[in-house]
Every structure is written in structure tokens, then in C-alpha cells.
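queue> holo job accepted (zinc ion)
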Amino acid sequence: MKLVIHRGTHEIGGTCIELQSHSSRILIDFGLPLVDENREPFDSNRIKNESKEVLIKTGVLHSIKGLDKDDQPGINAILLSHPHQDHYGLLSYINPTIPIYLSEGCKKLIEISYFFGQTSCDLKSTKAVKTWKKFKIGDFAIIPYLVDHSGFDALAFLIKCEGKRIFYTGDFRGHGRKSILYENLLKRPLKDIDYLILEGSMIGRDKGKYKTEQDIEKALTKQFQANNLFFIACSSQNIDRIVSIYKACKESDRTFVLDPYTAYILDHLKKISLNIPQYNWGKNIKIFFAPNSYTKKLADNKSLYKFKSAKITYDEIIETKNNLVIKDNYLTRNVLAKKKEIAGAKIIYSMWEGYLPDVKPFWEKYNIPIIKVHTSGHAYIEELQKFVKAIKPKNIIPNHTFYPENFPKIFQSNKITQIKDRQIINL
Ligand SMILES: [Zn+2]
Ligand SMILES: [Zn+2]
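queue> job finished
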């Protein structure tokens, strides 16, 4: 069997892994880069009007035989680990007849992102997989493992082929709301793993003040005791975080004010988990119909009406503001500022720091303190070490990391297979 990591051996983002057996080929993930050649944030607008040839030439898109729309299909299937763009963001360039295997939650979130124009990836041929249930693609037998990650319904894959066992972790952690999945992998570790393709996002990164998603819930509950209006900046697709905020609101008797976009996402995921907060759960959740393009899209396709029973108006927001936690968005914060209702408010910044410079000037202008309450979606070094110690893989292949050269020291192991992007390895 052959392995090629098209991108990811020396960077975080743009993940794409290929496995070739005697007669089958599969890809795992097909993501958009997060950084450019100078390790500056990758500008996804850059690819919008670019031809495929230029994208291949500049190294954004991979030239993989049998994958292209105009090519004879030569890839049996693509496995997607989770709905983050750095794992699926280039799928619009593939032949749409190639089947994509993914979790139900991953499928739903990519479809929603497509609906709102956040991705050009229009999933055509999908097969939703059941966690821990084996399926076959050509020579490959695959078992998807549900893992704890900030991306919803994220999977790792155990792949068996030609007598070898490979485990691809995807992005994962041990300190989220589904940490039990990580604990279970330590208690009942996978056996006889020949190759562990291991993510290492946190290598070279700071752990931060709050270690777990439970810490986040506690910190928010404590903050919300104050008699102020709170804004909270977080990703609508980070469901663990939405749950933490909702729980903190409940514990401190506050109402979480969502936008229709977030309410729509939660509504679409309700069948996958009964624990996801819903618009009709009562007094701790309200929906503000922020008049932006997303809300208009939902009004146009008649989905907005559904949330009417949970609607909160501007006047009601102003009347009850010190009992609210408003999910931050451009319009709401600006209108409240214009109405002079923002003085004394606090903003909790609960997402990746990279977006902070965009919003910082606004909050500083109004002297609103920015309180950072965030935890990583990725495993800490200690979590990775425990994981490797439990599994005892014969080889570790670094992936999704800027520091593959640190792996031997971190894992006290000489079994690290250091490879380069696009290098063909015989397994
Ligand atoms: Zn990733
Ligand atoms: Zn991810």
C-alpha cells in the first residue's frame, strides 16, 4: 500500500491524504489551506476567480490523477473527517460522481455553509456513515470513530488494507464536552496499529488560561453574575461552545439571544443530538431577527417563520438588557451603540484569536472590556502523549502540525516517520 500526504506534513490546514492499494485509491479530507507560502493567513478570496491551472501551479490545489471534474474518475471515494474548511474546502474542484463518506452532522453543516454561501462546495454524492460501523471501499475496510473536537460530529478513521492497520486521528482533543470519547480510547486502546497519522496542532502553541470546555462553562457562569449586558463572540458552528454558553446562561438565569442563522444550525442538528439547545426550549433562549443577509435568506426560503415564537425585539432587548447574553454580530452591536445602549456592556471573546483584530477597534471605541474565554479544539501535548502511550503504534506519521520535527522528543520515540508533502511512502 502507498501513502501520500498531499498537504499537512508541515502545516496546519489544507489536509489531504491519499492511500493507494493494489486496485483502489481513497482520499481522506480535501481541505483549504489556512496559511499561504509565507505562513500568513490564507486569503480564501484569492481562489474565487482563479483558474484551476493557476491554483495547481501556485500549490493551492493538488494535481491528483482521477480526481478532476474533467478526468475519468480514478478515486474510489473521499472520506471526510469533519466540517471544518481546512478539511473539506476544496471539494468543489473534484469530480462530483466520486462518493464522499462523512458523518451525518458533517454533511448537514457543509450543506448549511453552502446554503449561506460560505463555501462553494455543493455536496453531490454523499454516503453518511455510522460511527463504529465498518464499511468497505474497494480493498479498504474502514471503521469511523467519533472523536471530541470543536468541529461537530468529527471522525477519526481506522483503515485496514493489505494486512496493515492505519489510524488517522483527524482533528481531536480530550477536553471538550465529549471527552469521554478520548477517555474510552485510552481505556480500550486500539491494538496493532502499524501507522498512526497523528494531528499535532497544539505543538508550539500556548495552552491558554482555560483548559477544558467545563472550565469555559464555569468561567462564563461566574462572569454572568455581574449586572451588565453581555455580548459573546463565538462560532455558530462550534456546537460544544454554544452548549457551554447556553448552560452558563441557564445557571445564571440569563437569556441567550441568538441570530436566526445560529438557530437554524441548531434546529438542523437536533436529530443528531438531543442535547443541542433549541429555539423552543423556553426562557433562556430568544432569537433576534438581525436584519442581515443571512436572516433575509431564511425569510426568502420561509425558514425564518419557524423561530417567531422565540423572537425578541430591539425594545425588549433594551428593556431587559442586563439579563441577556447576545451572540455578537455586526448589526446588533452597531444598532445598540447607535441607540446609546452599549455603555457598561462587556464582550466575551470566545473563539480563535485570529479574528479579534477585526472587531477590537469597535469595542475599544466604546470602552467595552474584552474578556477572553476560550479553549482549544485540539489535543494538548499531554493528551497526545497519553494517547500514543496507550495505543503503542509501530509508526507515527506527523500531520496537521507546524512542528513535525518535535515529534521524536515529545513522544520519546524513534518510530516517527518524517515525510514531506507529496512524498510517496510504501507502507
Ligand atoms: Zn484542521
Ligand atoms: Zn478541525
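queue> The mean pLDDT is 96.
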